[in-house]
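Hi V.,

You were right to ask for the full record rather than a summary. Here it is.
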Amino acid sequence: MKHAMIVAGLGLAMAFATPAAAQSVSANNPGGLAKAMRDAGYQADLDVDDYGDPMITTKFGTYSGAIYFYGCDSTRHDRCESIQFRAGLDRKKAMPYSLMNQIVQKYRYTAMWLDDEGDPWVNFDVFTGDGIPTDVFMLAYTSYSDTLNNVANMVFAEENGG
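Predicted structure:
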């Protein structure tokens, strides 16, 4: 009887473990991450960046951007550890640092930098290690998209007469 209960318990544990494992994504598997995005209805085109590491081009709301992979093996460009959502916002005039400071203070998970023309780039990093639940990744993706939209409203407020 004990043996049957142990076998049944192991079978039950495996039944619950298998779907959970199938519902995770990782920077280790860029194709799987892109597939999860497409399955959720988002654009996700797998490519490589200038260093040979994986990259996914996508849209964050109405803004074009990319997901960059970091912590990858420097020669094989695999076994990546983390990702970064990134999009640039093209202003007519260089963005003042004071506005960038306001934005970073307001949006907790957002990092920003200005390119040579003073256009802001908005970053959001996610460490995946060996895997995070797909729904957590999608929450990060949609949160970044929402935050990017809010940041863009602030970035372009002056230019739009706001």
